[in-house]
Amino acid sequence: MSILRRLFPERDQRAPYRPLYDAIVAEARTPFWYLDGQVPDTVDGRFDMVALVMALVLIRLEAEGDSGRLPSTLLTELFVDDMDGQLRQIGIGDVVVGKHVGRMMSALGGRIGAYRTALEGQEPLHDALARNLWRGEAPADTGPVQARVRALHAALATASAADLYAGRLPRP
User: Fold this and answer.
1) Digits of tens for pLDDT over the chain (172 positions)?
2) Which sign, positive or negative, has the C-alpha torsion 102, 112, 86, 34?
3) What is the three-state SS of the chain?
4) How many CB atoms lie within 10 A of CB 160?
5) Greatest CA separation found in the chain?
């Protein structure tokens, strides 16, 4: 079987979207969020930030219509692989990793809906961020984070899909 794999290597469909995923994680690790935004620099806080930026990018890819579906799916698979690896790295065992990843996927889906609704003006962004970013305990001044989320959302809306896939997230 290894000879066949060398002759006909499997092509990882997700590889073209890895630069975008890496850019999402890099944005989520920007010190602004943790210093000025007061997002807890904890495992949960870092997950919440990756989920926030990931949600904004997935919302942007929805605008691509059918051509954005496969990239969204493959990007989400990269997220799942990363979260699986992170869980294993912190010592979560094989038996329960799947449950944790399932909860993370549910959390991501909930955040996509909450952020989409808030960014469309149907709900205050403060409320969505308080629930999902600060887990109910928002700092006194959420203005800087709200402004940056709105700016990133707006910048993503004008970015080309090709730039995004190449890992060039716009700077808010």
Assistant:
1) 556 555 555 568 989 999 999 999 999 999 999 999 999 999 889 999 999 999 999 999 999 999 999 999 999 989 888 877 676 566 666 656 667 666 877 889 999 999 999 999 999 999 999 999 999 999 999 999 999 999 999 999 999 999 999 999 998 8
2) negative
3) CHHHHHHCCCCCCCHHHHHHHHHHHHHHCCHHHHHCCCCCCCHHHHHHHHHHHHHHHHHHHHCCCHHHHHHHHHHHHHHHHHHHHHHHHCCCCHHHHHHHHHHHHHHHHHHHHHHHHHHCCCCCHHHHHHHHCCCCCCCCCCHHHHHHHHHHHHHHHHCCHHHHHCCCCCCC
4) 10
5) 61
Tokens of 30: 């920007």
Residue with tokens 């992170």, as numbered in its chain: 86
The two tokens of residue 145 are 């984070």
